[in-house]
Amino acid sequence: MTKNDFLKRIESEKLNTGEYIIVVDYLTDEPLVMGCTQENGKWIIYETKERGGYFVIKELPEENEAFDYFYQFLLSRHNYLTQN
């Protein structure tokens, strides 16, 4: 899915991400962020921890692949949080 499709979908489904915020326009090391952005021709899915600094979860070549993966990642987190 495209970035715009992803944004519409997570808004309509109101996925529970816990304390994390979603960022899709840039790479940040702010605390408690899950994000997907394009850097140097690659799409990067990343996460930051409570004290800041980011780590890359996955790199993908195409926007559709990246946002499909990121959506599934968030959905699994949502399912975990709502079951516990």
Report on the architecture of this protein.
The protein is an alpha+beta fold and 84 residues long. It has one domain. The chain is 38% helix and 29% strand. The protein is built from two helices and four strands. It has helices spanning 3-13, 63-83, and strands at 21-23, 33-39, 42-48, 54-60. It has a four-stranded mixed sheet with strand order 1-2-3-4, covered by helices on one side. The longest helix has 21 residues, at 63-83. The N and C termini lie far apart (29 Å).
Which key terms come to mind for this protein?
single chain, 84 residues, alpha+beta, four-stranded mixed beta sheet, 2 helices
Q: Look at the helices and sheets and give the structural class.
A: alpha+beta
Principal-axis shape: globular
What is the domain total for the residues?
1
Please estimate the helix content: 25-40%
Compressed to H and E, one letter per element, the order equals HEEEEH
Strand order of the main beta sheet, please? 1-2-3-4
The total of beta strands comes to: 4
- Give the number of helices: 2
Biggest β-sheet: count, sense, barrel?
4 strands, mixed
> How much strand?
25-35%
Name the average pLDDT. 93
Which regions contain 5 or more consecutive residues with pLDDT less than 50? none
> Radius of gyration from the CA trace?
12 Å
What separation lies between the terminal Cα atoms? 29 Å
